[in-house]
Amino acid sequence: MIKKSLYPILAIVLVLPMIVMFYLSLVSHWSFPKIFDVSISWSLWAEMFSGNSNILQSALLSLFLSTIIASTATFFGFFVSQQLSDRNLFLKLSYFPYLIAPVVFGAMLQFYFTLIGLSGSVWGVLLAQILFVFPYSVLLFSTFWNERIRQTAFQSMTLGANTWQVFLTVLLPMSKPWLFLCFVQCFLISWYEYGITQLIGVGKVETLPIKTMLFIKEANPHLAALSACIMVFPIVLFLIVNRQLFLKREIIG
Amino acid sequence: MTNDMKKGILIGTYFILTIVPLIMGLGYSLLYSFGMAGLMNNGFTFEHWQKLLANSELFITIGYSIYITLFSLFFILTFALLFSWWLVLKKNNYVFNLLFLPLAFPPLIAAFSWYYILSPAGIISRIVYYFGMTTDISDFPRLVNDDYSVGIILTHIFLIFPLFTILFIQQAKKERMYSLKEISFTLGSTKNQFFLKVFMPLLLKKTAPLILLYAIFLIGAYEVPLLLGQSSPRMITVFISDKMTRFNLQDIPQGHAMAVTYSVLIIGITTLFIRKIKTV
Question: Are B28 and B137 part of one and the same domain?
Answer without folding.
Answer: no
